[in-house]
Amino acid sequence: MKKLLTLSFLVLIYACGGKESESAEQKNILESLTFSVDTVVVDPGDDFLALSFGLGAFDLSPDQKELLFFQNKPLSLVTVSLDELKVISKTEFETEGPNSVGSFIGDLEAGPSNHVFIKGFNGQGIFTSEGEMTENLKIFPEGLDPEYTNDFMKIYGNSMYDFQSEKFYAQPYGEIIKDNELWVIDPASKSYASYPLPKMKSVGDLAITFTQKTADGTMSSYYGPSAYMEIQNNQVLISGGTMSGLYKLSSQADSVEFIDIQHNTVPNEWNITVQKESSDEASFKEDRRKISEQLNFMDFKWDETREMYIRFGKRTFLGENRGDPSSYELYLFAYDKDFNVLGETKIAGLETIPSSYFWRDGKLYSYVNVEDELGFAVFTFDF
Question: What is the pTM of this model?
Answer without folding.
Answer: 0.89
